Amino acid sequence: MKKIILNVEGITPKQWTNFVLELNIMRKAWKPYGVNVKLLGHGVQKIIKWGTKSNDYSKRVRSDSKSLLEDEEKEI
Q1: Reported confidence tier of residue 55, pLDDT bands at 50, 70, 90
Q2: Residue 15 CB: number of other CB atoms within 10 A?
Q3: 24-59 burial, b for 16+ CB within 10 Å, e for fewer?
Q4: Nearest in space to 43 (alpha carbons), one of 25, 12, 22, 16
Q5: Mean predicted confidence (pLDDT) in 34-61
Q6: Over the Cα atoms of the chain, what is R_g?
Q7: d(Cα 28, Cα 39) in Å, to the nearest integer?
Q8: Does the pLDDT value for residue 9 go beyond 90?
Q9: What number of other Cβ atoms are within 10 A of residue 17's Cβ?
Q10: Cα(72)–Cα(39) distance, rounded to whole angstroms?
Q11: Backbone phi and psi for residue 21, each to the nearest 5 degrees, phi listed first
Protein backbone atom coordinates (compact mmCIF):
# COMPACT_ATOMS: atom_id res chain seq x y z
CA MET A 1 0.00 0.00 0.00
CA LYS A 2 1.21 3.45 -0.87
CA LYS A 3 -0.01 6.52 0.95
CA ILE A 4 -0.19 10.20 0.02
CA ILE A 5 -1.18 12.95 2.41
CA LEU A 6 -2.37 16.20 0.86
CA ASN A 7 -2.34 19.38 2.91
CA VAL A 8 -4.38 21.92 1.00
CA GLU A 9 -4.25 25.51 2.18
CA GLY A 10 -5.89 28.66 0.86
CA ILE A 11 -8.83 26.86 -0.70
CA THR A 12 -12.42 28.04 -0.46
CA PRO A 13 -15.17 25.64 0.61
CA LYS A 14 -16.53 25.50 -2.96
CA GLN A 15 -13.06 24.79 -4.36
CA TRP A 16 -12.58 22.09 -1.72
CA THR A 17 -15.82 20.41 -2.74
CA ASN A 18 -14.82 20.44 -6.41
CA PHE A 19 -11.34 19.17 -5.52
CA VAL A 20 -12.76 16.22 -3.59
CA LEU A 21 -15.26 15.40 -6.36
CA GLU A 22 -12.48 15.44 -8.97
CA LEU A 23 -10.38 13.10 -6.82
CA ASN A 24 -13.42 10.83 -6.67
CA ILE A 25 -13.67 10.87 -10.47
CA MET A 26 -10.01 9.81 -10.65
CA ARG A 27 -10.69 7.08 -8.09
CA LYS A 28 -13.52 5.69 -10.23
CA ALA A 29 -11.45 5.92 -13.43
CA TRP A 30 -8.56 3.89 -11.97
CA LYS A 31 -10.75 1.20 -10.40
CA PRO A 32 -11.03 -0.96 -13.59
CA TYR A 33 -7.22 -1.21 -13.63
CA GLY A 34 -7.14 -2.77 -10.16
CA VAL A 35 -6.21 0.38 -8.28
CA ASN A 36 -8.26 0.85 -5.13
CA VAL A 37 -8.06 4.41 -3.81
CA LYS A 38 -9.51 5.38 -0.45
CA LEU A 39 -10.36 9.00 0.19
CA LEU A 40 -10.26 9.76 3.88
CA GLY A 41 -10.89 13.06 5.58
CA HIS A 42 -13.36 15.05 7.56
CA GLY A 43 -16.61 15.27 5.56
CA VAL A 44 -15.18 13.71 2.39
CA GLN A 45 -17.76 10.92 2.18
CA LYS A 46 -20.57 13.42 2.74
CA ILE A 47 -19.25 15.62 -0.08
CA ILE A 48 -19.01 12.62 -2.42
CA LYS A 49 -22.51 11.43 -1.54
CA TRP A 50 -23.97 14.90 -2.11
CA GLY A 51 -21.96 15.55 -5.29
CA THR A 52 -22.73 12.25 -6.99
CA LYS A 53 -26.42 11.85 -6.19
CA SER A 54 -28.79 11.66 -9.12
CA ASN A 55 -32.09 13.45 -9.06
CA ASP A 56 -35.22 11.38 -9.40
CA TYR A 57 -37.60 13.28 -11.65
CA SER A 58 -39.97 10.35 -12.00
CA LYS A 59 -41.75 11.15 -8.75
CA ARG A 60 -44.91 13.18 -9.16
CA VAL A 61 -46.13 15.72 -6.70
CA ARG A 62 -49.63 14.81 -5.61
CA SER A 63 -51.12 18.11 -6.74
CA ASP A 64 -49.37 17.82 -10.13
CA SER A 65 -50.48 14.25 -10.75
CA LYS A 66 -54.06 15.10 -9.83
CA SER A 67 -54.17 17.96 -12.32
CA LEU A 68 -52.55 15.76 -14.98
CA LEU A 69 -55.22 13.10 -14.51
CA GLU A 70 -58.00 15.68 -14.72
CA ASP A 71 -56.54 17.09 -17.96
CA GLU A 72 -56.41 13.61 -19.50
CA GLU A 73 -60.04 12.93 -18.60
CA LYS A 74 -61.15 16.21 -20.22
CA GLU A 75 -59.41 15.26 -23.49
CA ILE A 76 -61.21 11.91 -23.70
Answers
A1: confident
A2: 11
A3: beeeeeeeeeeeeeeeeeeeeeebbeeeeeeeeeee
A4: 16
A5: 85
A6: 21
A7: 11
A8: yes
A9: 16
A10: 50
A11: -65, -35
